[in-house]
Amino acid sequence: MAELFHRKLERTAIGFVIAIIAAASVGGIVEIAPLFTINETVEEAPDLRLYTPLELAGRNIYIREGCYACHSQMIRTLRDEVERYGPYSLAVESKYDRPMLWGSKRTGPDLARVGGKYSDFWHVAHLTNPRDVVPESNMPAYRWLARTGLETEDLGRHLQAQRALGVPYTNAMITNAAADAFGQAAPDSPFAAGVTERYGEKTQVSAFDGVATQLTEMDALVAYLQVLGQLTDAAYSNTAAPEQAPDPTN
Amino acid sequence: MVQQLTTGDRQNTLVILLFVFVVGVAMAAVGRFDPLGVHGVIVMLFGGSLAALVMRSYYEREPTQDRLSHYYDDPIKAGVALTLAWAIFGMFMGVWTAAQLAWPDLAFDAGWSTFGRLRPTHTTGVIFGFGGNALIATSFHVVQRTSRARLAGQVSPWFVLLGFNLFCILAVTGYFMGVTQSKEYAEAEWYADLWLVVVWVTYFVLFLRTLARRKEPHIYVANWYYMAFIVVVAILHIVNNLALPISLGQAKSYTIWAGVQDSMVQWWYGHNAVAFFLTAGFLAMLYYYLPVRAQRPIFSYRLSILSFWGITFFYMWAGSHHLHYTALPHWVQNLGMTFSVMLLVPSWASAGNALLTLNGAWHRVRDDATLRFIFVAAVFYGLSTFEGSFMAIRPVNALSHYTDWTVGHVHAGALGWVAFITFGSLYTLVPSLWKRERMYSPALVEVHFWLAVAGTLIYVFSMWNSGILQGLMWRTYTQEGTLAYSFLDSLVAMYPYYIARAFGGLLFLLGAIVAAYNIWMTVRAVPVAAGGQADVPDSGLAPNTVATPAE
Predict the structure, then answer these.
(1) Which of A110, A130, B239, B291 is the most buried (most CB within 10 A)?
(2) B271 and B318 in contact (C-beta within 8 Å)?
(3) Is B313:A23 a contact under the CB 8 Å cutoff?
(4) Which of A81, A98, A109 sits opposite B262 (nearest CB)?
(5) CA B28 to CA B31: how far, in whole Å?
(6) Partner residues linked to B32 by β-bridges
(7) Is B23 domain-assigned?
(8) What ipTM goes with this model?
């Protein structure tokens, strides 16, 4: 009977295509649609702050260089991961991440909580030539980042596009995007105060690559690395104990 | 390519190419301060040089009316050439990136050549360049032969083939410049994605119109898979790539999906790119070229139905197994695991169907390296689908995720299954397409076979070893209850395997070069077959008698 039905279906290309669409749609709809409607999917984190223009620019460099191909940003709910990298990642921590950079491979270590673990100076040395600080490393050297000036003129447009998609950047943030990017990497300049005013007291203002007069891609990337895991404290409070890794001996 | 087109067709072609050229000029103008401008120049050159090619032969003799009573094979021949070119490019990039993991200075201190930028040139080069061209070329061949109808268009097959290659070129050149969305296996930016939608819709319409002309009442199994491949890839591509560009003059865009929802959409796409690009389309090849080469009908029609609908339905649920133990809600992870395990049933039904088809033709498998390619493909398909279901189980995934085991698994599928079935199909297709008696050198097919087998095994075994070792080192505790190894310890342990892996990949690349040479020489040096059964749509005997299902 079923075979007879299929024999019929095989005689109509349009019918077959409709059947394919019907069969293939179910899984995606059931798994994706509820992620937007079930409230517990993304936790509340009132202290969650936005990426500053400099951090966002750094994030885009991280994307441009394909760092996600070797570094994950997602600590799983397993004991060894929590002990190695810190509290497991929460959905709210990547609430504004477009795209998310959870990654799928750890040729290098996870970076979800790398912010604040090393000094700016260490990051600059490491990015300039990883083998200077970690002799066994197989990471590429990124010397040219410190020589390349950061494009700031279009940062306002970046923030505007993000706002159009639902990230709550204010008008003031958008108008001052370029100045804020400069100010965050020049602590002694008159532009520095505006950054903490708009993005919060916790924002790290620092001459990231050691040179406060010129804004480079190195500044942006280090600023981004230093904010990883620092946008909210949510992961450090109210999280359940991690699942135990399965014991391989039993 | 132009000889088969009438003056009207040639004019249409020129109009399309002119349009492409103008779009290129516009992109170059508005994007002059951005990588988008470079892509504008590439689009201009692409449209312009093809237009020059058409113009040069514009006044050549028109084809006679009887062209319509023959199969349309010119685009397929070009597709075969492009498949081989992309295979060599994509696999070379793979060997290079693999070598960089062992010797990081192979990036030569430049931006464009770092691992992060080269990796997507490898994945896009082999998946879309090599795999995609093979799928388009064979789909044009199979749909004509099994429907006994000529392709339903003179210009559109060229548009699909060359338009798709323009997409691949934009994607790959973009990665060198750092233009990427960073969505795995969907890295190309918004304008390339939009162009692919246009190409893909044309492909879909062309395929359906060709099926509508068929002289067989039933649509053959291979075409079910090609249809699923075309339709579902369109859905996946559009949904995953919805994005807002920061301006029309810039390459950069932001995806509309954020955080946890983005992760689900991306792996729903990513896993089904495996399902409908790297599985469905290549199963279509299996269902046509296997029975043709083995000269035996497919073992079971019912198993074909079971596996087709099983794959179409189950696969779409499986993507979330890429996100076990992450911030994705638990219920979605469990659904992904459950369906991944169930997926083994239709997968093994396909693999079993293929192997049982060979029952009774084992002497051919022994003697004919081409059929052996197809046989090994079916075996690796069975193995890697088992491995996939296994790795989707949560506790197993806890060990395997983020490690080289995943990479090994992907390559068991990509080398052992996808590339083997493609080369087996090409060695079957090429002599018949160019009407040659045989391949230039059967010995070189044999050499290619053993290079490919050795390369795949070395690759996969080294990645299994490194992956499992890595996973175990990360979770090993000392007696005192502290982590036994630093991350760096695990990296140091990887180096021997990374070298072995690069060597395995090199062998596989050499095999692909041998194949390209052999196919090139077949076209150039092997005499045209005399007589034989006419390969035309209206011949009384269906040339695909052996490819029709049993029962």
Answers:
(1) B291
(2) yes
(3) yes
(4) A98
(5) 5
(6) none
(7) no
(8) 0.94
Look at phi and psi of residue A103 and say left if phi exceeds 0, alpha if psi is from -120 to 50, else beta.
left
Whether residue B374 is contained in a domain is answered as yes
- The domain containing residue B295 runs over which residues? 74-527
Task: Please tell me which residue of chain A has the smallest CA distance to B239.
Answer: A28
Q: How far is A232 from chain B (nearest CA, A)?
A: 15
Tokens 């969305």 found at: B181
Alpha-carbon span A47 to A214, nearest angstrom: 31
- Chain A CB contacts of B246 below 8 Å: 154, 157-158, 160-161
How many CB pairs below 8 A link A and B?
Answer: 260
Alpha-carbon distance values, B439 to B75, B87, B307, B516, B526 (Å)? 20, 19, 33, 12, 7
> What residues form DSSP beta bridges with A79?
none
Coil/strand/helix, residue B253: strand
* CA distance linking residue B450 with residue A250, whole number of Å: 40
Per-residue pLDDT of chain B (551 residues; tens, 9 = 90+): 788 899 999 999 999 999 999 999 999 999 999 999 999 999 999 999 999 999 999 998 888 888 888 999 999 999 999 999 999 999 999 999 999 999 999 999 899 999 999 999 999 999 999 999 999 999 999 999 999 999 999 999 999 999 999 999 999 999 999 999 999 999 999 999 999 999 999 999 999 999 999 999 999 999 999 999 999 999 999 999 999 999 999 999 999 999 999 999 999 999 999 899 999 999 999 999 999 999 999 999 999 999 999 999 999 999 999 999 999 999 999 999 999 999 999 999 999 999 999 998 999 999 999 999 999 999 999 999 999 999 999 999 999 999 999 999 999 999 999 999 999 999 999 999 999 999 999 999 999 999 999 999 999 999 999 999 999 999 999 999 999 999 999 999 999 999 999 999 999 999 999 999 999 999 999 888 876 556 888 654 444 444 444 43
> CATH code at B209?
1.20.210.10
Chain B residues with CB-CB distance to A14 below 8 A: 208
Please give the single-letter amino acid code of residue B466. S
Kindly give, in sequence order, each residue whose CB lies less than 8 Å from that of residue B443, ignoring residues fewer than 6 positions away.
none
Please tell me the number of Cα atoms within 13 Å of A105 on its side-chain side: 20
Chain A residues inside the 8 Å CB shell of B323:
102
DSSP B528: B
Closest chain B residue to the Cα of A64, Cα to Cα: B178
CB nearest A99 (choices: B115, B227, B262):
B262
d(CA B445, CA B511): 9
In total, how many domains does chain B have? 1
Tell me the chain B residues in contact with residue A42 when contact means C-beta distances shorter than 8 Å. Answer: 259-260
Alpha-carbon distance B101 to nearest alpha carbon in chain A (angstroms): 6
Residues of A in contact with B109 (CB under 8 A): 141, 143-144
Q: Using DSSP, state whether A237 is helix, strand or coil.
A: coil
Instruction: Report yes or no on B417 lying in a domain.
Output: yes
Residue B532, domain member (yes or no): no
Mutate to test the interface with B, among A3, A20, A169 (most CBs of B within 10 A): A20
